[in-house]
Write a structure and sequence with these properties.
Low-confidence stretches: 1-21
Helix content: 40-55%
Strand content: under 5%
Distance between the termini: 49 Å
Largest sheet: none
Mean pLDDT: 86
CATH superfamily: Cytochrome c-like domain
CATH architecture: Orthogonal Bundle
C-alpha cells in the first residue's frame, strides 16, 4: 500500500506541474509572430493557408489554398494534439508536406500557440 501512495503522490505532483504550465493564449499570440510571415489569422491566404478557424478543420481543406498532396491526403483533423505534433515536427507529423519549417522544440511555446489558435474563430 505504501507503494501505491508513492505512485499517487508522484501523479499528483506531475499534474500540478502540468497545471503550472497551463496554456496562455496571449503568450501564444506573441509566439505566433514568426508564423505570421506565412499564415494569416483573418481568413486570407498567403504563402501558407489562413489559420483562422483551424481548430476542428480538416488538414488541407481551407478554401482557396493550394495544398501539397501529403497535406490533402493526411486525413488529420486539427485539434490540440495534432497541432502540437505538427508544430513540433511538421515532417514527422505529416511526411511530405511542404511547409519550410523545421519545428519548434519548446513544448510551452507550442502549447501557447495552440491555445492562441483555438481563439481564432
Amino acid at each position: 500500500m505504501n507503494h501505491s501512495f508513492k505512485l499517487l503522490s508522484c501523479a499528483a505532483l506531475l499534474c500540478a506541474g502540468t497545471a503550472a504550465q497551463a496554456q496562455d493564449a496571449a503568450a501564444g499570440k506573441a509566439a505566433f509572430a514568426p508564423c505570421a510571415a506565412c499564415h494569416s489569422v483573418n481568413g486570407s491566404n498567403g504563402a501558407g493557408p489562413s489559420l483562422q478557424g483551424v481548430v476542428g478543420r480538416k488538414a488541407g481543406a481551407f478554401e482557396g489554398f493550394r495544398y501539397s498532396r501529403a497535406m490533402k491526403a493526411a486525413g488529420t483533423t486539427w485539434d490540440a494534439a495534432s497541432l502540437d505534433a505538427y508544430i513540433a515536427d511538421p515532417q514527422k507529423a505529416i511526411p511530405g508536406n511542404v511547409m519550410p519549417f523545421s519545428g519548434m522544440p519548446d513544448a510551452k511555446a507550442r502549447a501557447d500557440i495552440v491555445a492562441y489558435l483555438g481563439t481564432l474563430k
